[in-house]
Specification:
- The chain is mainly alpha-helical.
- The protein folds into two domains: 96 residues, Orthogonal Bundle (Fumarase C, Chain B, domain 1), CATH 1.10.275.10; 239 residues, Fumarase/aspartase (Central domain) (Fumarase C, Chain A, domain 2, Up-down Bundle), CATH 1.20.200.
- It contains 17 helices and six strands.
- The strands form three sheets. A two-stranded antiparallel sheet has the order 1-2. Strands 3-4 form a two-stranded parallel ribbon. It has a two-stranded antiparallel ribbon with strand order 5-6.
- Helix 10 runs parallel beside helix 13.
């Protein structure tokens, strides 16, 4: 019998409805298990503080919850067939182990705010893991950028050879792009840092709940003040997080597309060990960029996630709706997809090999036309006249590349500014406050 059922009468219709409405929710719920325990520990401490459970009951429940958390961490937790979801499973375990006091854990809360808390705690944990992996890839890109700062390659616009670039400039661009993507991830984190606990089913409670206490215990920045607003955050936080993940995916997908081009025979700028590429069943010379192709496809799929979430939640009035359950099926698997892409692209960057003297190839002689124009300007010719002169040489087939002029301004091939990029990343990372969150969670498990 479900927690919400008022009758034990069942039928084939009942089972069909339950199967349809449950979907993949039980599988997704397992990801929420440790966070449900953390939320319950904070709620329990508050219930004791306001006198809704006794000190003796609170101690027994706290010890049981901490034991359940350890079982979850050890992989010894599962949803029994009689449990509707992770929340009822944990409450059922508490009642078995502590007795009637276990039934008091739900006092002053609804499954609505219970799920919201679990989701917020999961989201901020996943954000922490994603950000840590972004930082690893960022460091790999900047390190490789420094090594290859002087290795020139052609830059392109409209797929046409344009101006001199370098492997260092190219890799540094993606490092800076990752740091910018974390701005939107930080916004999602801030939304996940508002505490909905105590909003109950969306309209508060007649119990004297101390919402500021649970906010502090769980390491949240602030409570959702208005209980209706707390419920309306369901879907909003997911959209913001999906958009942040989509931004990262766009950067990773573009980098993957570049690598697929640059390791092809028509470019040949970069290469990778055989162990990181695949071959052909009939063409012995092939070294295919399968890692980057799969990463590109998965990142394209991740960029569709914000739209999926927006469409699921569009036109819903305020209050809770079962539609929100489907969001878990979309968002939860995406966390691992993004983390896998970050790991694998990092592995490829770490083992990237760069061809030397690329611009010595005659096919790239026109990459120096701007250098030629600039040299004429430096000799005293007005820019438009210099441009016209070089253009005529190109048209007549008489153009000869000019020597490279020094590129000294910030963000050019002669002055990558990687130190500024690294400082920018550190500033972004400092805005999250992960240490405070981890300290609060550890305190709940040890207090």
């Amino acid at each position: 019998m479900k927690l919400w059922q008022q009758s034990t009468v069942s039928s084939a219709w009942t089972e069909a409805v339950q199967a349809f409405t449950t979907g993949l929710d039980r599988e997704m719920d397992l990801m929420l298990a440790p966070y449900d325990v953390l939320g319950s520990l904070a709620h329990l401490a508050m219930l004791e503080q306001v006198g809704l459970v006794s000190a003796t009951e609170a101690l027994a429940l706290k010890q049981a919850l901490q034991a359940i958390y350890q079982e979850i961490a050890a992989g010894q937790f599962e949803l029994e067939s009689g449990a509707e979801d992770v929340h009822s499973q944990i409450e059922m375990l508490l009642t078995r182990r502590v007795g009637e006091a276990g039934k008091k854990i739900h006092t002053g809360r609804s499954r609505n705010d219970q799920v919201l808390v679990d989701l917020k705690l999961l989201f901020r944990a996943e954000i922490g893991q994603i950000v840590a992996k972004v930082k690893v890839l960022f460091d790999q890109l900047l390190a490789k950028s420094a090594v290859h700062a002087q290795d020139l390659i052609p830059g392109y616009t409209h797929f046409q050879v344009a101006m001199p670039s370098s492997v260092g400039l190219w890799l540094g661009a993606y490092a800076e792009g990752l740091s910018e993507d974390l701005f939107s991830m930080q916004a999602a984190f801030r939304l996940a840092q508002k505490n909905p606990l105590g909003s109950a089913a969306g309209y508060g409670s007649s119990f004297p709940l101390d919402r500021d206490l649970t906010t502090a215990l769980l390491g949240f920045e602030a409570p959702h003040v208005n209980s209706v607003a707390a419920q309306m955050a369901r879907g909003k936080t997911e959209r913001a997080l999906a958009q942040a993940m989509g931004n990262l995916a766009a950067t990773l997908g573009k980098f993957s597309a570049d690598c697929c081009l640059f390791m092809g025979q028509n470019f040949g700028f970069i290469a990778f060990p055989d162990a990181l590429t695949t071959g052909s069943s009939i063409m012995p010379h092939k070294k295919n960029p399968d890692v980057f192709e799969i990463a590109r496809a998965r990142c394209n799929s991740l960029q569709a996630l914000p739209n999926e979430i927006a469409l699921i939640t569009s036109n819903l009035p305020s209050g809770y709706h079962r539609d929100f359950q489907v969001l878990k099926e979309k968002l939860f698997p995406a966390f691992q997809v993004l983390k896998d892409c970050l790991d694998m692209i990092g592995l490829m960057v770490e083992n990237m090999q760069v061809k030397q003297d690329i611009l010595a190839d005659a096919r790239y002689r026109y990459v120096f036309t701007v250098e030629s124009v600039n040299q004429l300007v430096l000799s005293g010719l007005p820019f438009r006249e210099a441009y016209h002169q070089v253009s005529q040489e190109v048209t007549a087939g008489t153009y000869q590349p000019a020597p490279m002029l020094p590129h000294t301004h910030l963000g050019s091939i002669g002055n990558l500014g990687n130190d500024r990029i690294a400082a920018g990343m550190e500033a972004v990372l400092g805005g999250f406050g992960f240490e405070r969150v981890l300290a609060a969670e550890e305190a709940l498990l040890l207090r």
